[in-house]
Write a structure and sequence with these properties.
Layout: H1 3-11, H2 13-44, H3 50-65, H4 71-85, H5 100-138
Length: 161
């Protein structure tokens, strides 16, 4: 095999568009993650009244869940799939309300898009800095940020070395 044919799928425009589609899912998932973190912090504190937090959580969950069942996000998702994934999806019939099955299927696809995009963004946020740190360490770039810490695997005591 030629090296050019091995690398060709990685540099193809369709691969980059699919990556952008996943990043878009991660960006759209970010408010949901921030909301979950905020409520987790409020529920873990003892000085915040729990009934108030649970009432706010119910309202926030309703507000967060309703939009994925509406026609607007479905149309946005169809446009993103057409443009970025190159899939020919039919337009929703104008003036025709989507039935329950279509709304549920659309909400599940949007949810899958958000979850997979969130996983890709989380992997990028963790893998890229770690890869850069390891590459820099191979070239002798070390900031000694964890040299004084004695916690976990970053305690400076390497049992293998």
């Amino acid at each position: 095999m030629k090296p050019r044919t091995v690398v060709a799928p990685l540099v193809a425009a369709s691969t980059w568009r699919r990556g952008v589609f996943l990043l878009l899912g991660g960006v759209l998932a970010l408010p949901y993650v921030l909301l979950a973190v905020a409520f987790a912090q409020m529920l873990s504190r003892s000085d915040v009244p729990r009934p108030l937090v649970l009432a706010l959580l119910g309202v926030a969950a309703t507000i967060a869940a309703v939009p994925v069942f509406l026609d607007g996000p479905r149309a946005l998702e169809i446009a993103a799939v057409r443009t970025l994934l190159g899939v020919d999806l039919p337009d929703p019939a104008p003036g025709h309300a989507a039935d329950r099955e279509t709304r549920l299927r659309s909400a599940l696809w949007i949810g899958l898009h958000l979850v997979s995009g969130g996983l890709v963004v989380a992997a990028l946020f963790s893998a890229v800095p770690m890869a850069l740190a390891f590459i820099g360490q191979q070239f002798g770039l070390d900031t000694q940020m964890t040299g004084g810490d004695r916690f976990g695997p970053l305690d400076g005591r390497d049992p293998a070395g």
